[in-house]
Amino acid sequence: MRHPSRLVGHQEQPSFGKSAVALETNRFLDKIRVGINAKYKEITERDNYVTAEKVKNAFLGLEMWHETLLKVFSQHNEDFFKQVDAGLRCPSTYNKYCTVYKHLEEFIKTRYRVSDIALKELTPAFITDFDIFLRTEKQCCNNTVWIYMMPLRRMITIAQKKLSEKGSFLLCQEAAQNFSDSLFFFSRVAHLRPLIFC
Questions:
Q1: pLDDT, tens only, 50-95
Q2: Do residues 59 and 34 lie in contact, with contact meaning Cβ atoms separated by under 8 Å?
Q3: Residues 157-186, buried b or exposed e (16+ Cβ, 10 A)?
Q4: What is the pTM of this model?
Q5: What is the DSSP letter of 170?
Q6: Quick one: angle between helices 69-85 and 91-107, nearest 10?
């Protein structure tokens, strides 16, 4: 009996012949191909970019836990609305969060051409781009931009807490660095704000 690896061809057909082993090998390879394509599509819809490593890790079940910015923001707004209903929070603050959510959603769709962005992909450049978007596309003045950036800062802080609650082993070094860079960016801008905006 021939070894199944000798049945594998290097042309269009993964395996030659109509033997049971060849047919089983082809079915198995087709299942793998479909699985990889499904993971590729899922990552494309969720993240800004796709790499071979992301697809491989997703297919093998080694994918890092992930949340998305708008998902965290939406959950925050739902929880905040409950507090407004209970009379614990101000309705105008809730309206501000809803407005920032709409602007952020539009920004992500126009700038990155995706419906949402993974938290692990937030960078200081993302924050700067959102700032520019508010100033140019939404015609916001300095104070309004500052007021709208604070909810984004809150979402980044919430996201960082969520990721660390899931366990430090799930939070990759790059994501941790992106979060700390983003938070540093906010704290630096907050420190310079009186000098810049007065």
A1: 888 778 777 766 555 567 789 889 999 999 999 999 999 999 999 9
A2: no
A3: ebbbeebeeeeeeebeeebeebbeebbebb
A4: 0.59
A5: G
A6: 160
